[in-house]
Write a structure and sequence with these properties.
By secondary structure, this protein is α+β, with helices and mostly antiparallel strands. The chain contains 6 helices and 20 strands. It starts with a helix and ends in a 15-residue tail after the last strand.
Length: 365
C-alpha cells in the first residue's frame, strides 16, 4: 500500500467526532433460499456524494493499517475478496471473500468510541475502513473472526480516512458467512464488543443489543392477515391484505428500519434458487430506499440529505456481488469466480453511472 498516502490521511484525530451526522440510514438483511444459498445485502446512505468503485483484491496483496501514530498492523491477504472501495483508497469497506465471508461497516454515530493508539498497541491497530479488509483477507468463517476479535488481535485507531468528510467516521460492523451465521461488533469505550446476530439484520445507532430488545415491542406483528373479530356482536373484517403488519414503523430512523427489516426478512417465502433470493433481497431493500429530500439535516447553513446511494446484494454460495445506484437502477453483477485470485494487482470499476431509459415504443405489435 502507499504508506505516504496513508500517513497523510492519518492526521490528528485522537478523539471520536460525534457531532457530524451526514450519514445515518444504512440497512442490512439476510435470507436463505431452498437450495441453501445465503443471500445478504444492504443499502448505503450518505448526505454527501461518496466516490465508490467495485474492486477485486487478490490473494497475497500486502496491507498496512493506518493509525494516528503512523503505520499500524501489517498483513498479507490469505483470501481474495471483492466489494466496494471508497475513492482511490484500495481497501474494501463492504465485500465478500472467496470463502463466502462477508464484512461491512455501518454508521454508528453517538456511540462509536475507538481505542487510543499508543506505542504499545500500534502494531495491532488500523483504521475503521482497514478492519473490513483485514477480516475479508484473513478469515473464512464467523467463528474465526469472533475468536480473533475476542482475543484482542486488532484495535481500531481514530484516524481520518480517504474519501469521507474530514471527521473521524463512527462505524460498527457486521460479519456473515456462507452458513448464515452472523455477528455484529461495535467499538464501545475503546473496546470491540461482539454480539451474535441470529436474525442477520443491522441498521445504525443505538447499540445492537438495544435493537434486539426493542424488537419485543412488535411481537404481535405478523405476515398473515388476521381473521375477522366480533366486537359487541358486530363482525369487523380487516380492510385488506397487510393488516397483520398494522403498526409496523415506516419512518427512516434506525430503530424503525431495524424492526421493518426484521419483519420483512423474517416473513420471506424462500425462493427455490439463489438468483430468486437475490431479487427477493433487492425487493426487501427497496422498502428502505430514501429519495433525496426525505431525510435531511441542516449543518452550518447547508442541507445534507441522506439518500440511498447504493444497494448491494451478496450471494455467498455462488460468490456473486450485485449492486445498483441511485442514478442507475439497472442491477449489475460481479462474478468472483471469473477472476484470478492469485493476480498481482487490484482491478476496479467505477460505480457511479447514469441510467439510460429503454425506449420500447418500436416493440409494440
Amino acid at each position: 500500500m502507499n504508506i505516504k498516502k496513508r500517513t497523510i490521511a492519518a492526521i490528528a484525530a485522537l478523539a471520536m467526532t460525534l457531532g457530524f451526522t451526514t450519514a445515518d440510514a444504512c440497512t442490512g438483511v439476510q435470507i436463505t433460499t431452498k437450495d441453501g444459498a445465503v443471500i445478504n445485502g444492504r443499502t448505503v446512505e450518505f448526505g454527501v456524494l461518496i466516490d465508490t468503485s467495485i474492486a477485486v483484491v487478490p490473494r497475497g496483496y500486502k496491507f498496512t493499517g493506518m493509525t494516528t501514530l503512523g503505520p499500524g498492523k501489517t498483513w498479507t491477504a490469505k483470501y481474495a475478496s471483492a466489494g466496494m472501495i471508497i475513492a482511490d483508497y484500495d481497501v474494501i469497506v463492504d465485500g465478500m471473500n472467496e470463502k463466502g465471508l462477508v464484512c461491512a461497516n455501518f454508521y454508528f454515530p453517538g456511540y462509536a468510541k475507538y481505542s487510543v493508539t499508543t506505542k504499545e498497541n500500534q502494531s495491532i491497530s488500523m483504521s475503521s475502513t482497514d478492519i473490513v479488509q483485514w477480516i475479508l483477507s484473513m478469515f473464512s468463517t464467523v467463528d474465526e473472526v469472533k475468536k480473533a476479535l475476542e482475543n484482542n488481535e486488532v484495535a481500531i485507531s481514530p484516524v481520518l480516512t480517504p474519501g469521507f468528510p474530514p471527521q473521524v467516521q463512527p462505524f460498527h460492523f457486521i460479519v456473515y458467512d456462507k452458513t448464515g451465521k452472523s455477528i455484529v461488533f461495535e467499538p464501545i469505550d475503546g473496546k470491540l464488543k461482539v454480539y451474535d446476530n441470529p436474525i442477520g439484520v443491522i441498521t445504525n445507532s443505538p447499540t445492537f443489543d438495544w435493537h434486539m430488545t426493542n424488537l419485543r415491542n412488535y411481537v404481535t406483528l405478523g405476515a398473515n392477515t388476521p381473521d375477522p373479530k366480533k366486537v359487541f356482536g358486530v363482525e369487523l373484517k380487516p380492510l385488506g391484505q397487510g393488516a397483520g403488519m398494522l403498526g409496523l414503523p415506516g419512518d427512516f430512523t434506525p430503530p424503525s428500519r431495524f424492526v421493518r427489516a426484521a419483519a420483512f426478512a423474517g416473513s420471506t417465502i424462500p425462493d427455490e434458487k439463489a438468483e430468486g433470493g437475490v431479487m427477493q433481497v433487492f425487493h426487501i431493500l427497496n422498502s428502505f430506499d430514501i429519495p433525496v429530500g426525505a431525510a435531511r439535516t441542516i449543518e452550518e447553513g447547508k442541507i445534507f440529505s441522506d439518500y440511498t446511494m447504493l444497494t448491494v446484494v451478496r450471494d455467498t454460495k455462488n460468490l456473486r456481488y450485485y449492486y445498483k445506484t441511485y442514478d442507475d437502477q439497472n442491477i449489475k453483477m460481479l462474478d468472483m469466480k471469473k477472476f484470478d485470485f492469485n493476480a498481482k494487482k487490484i482491478v476496479k470499476l467505477h460505480t457511479l453511472t447514469k441510467q439510460k431509459f429503454e425506449d420500447v415504443s418500436g416493440k409494440l405489435k
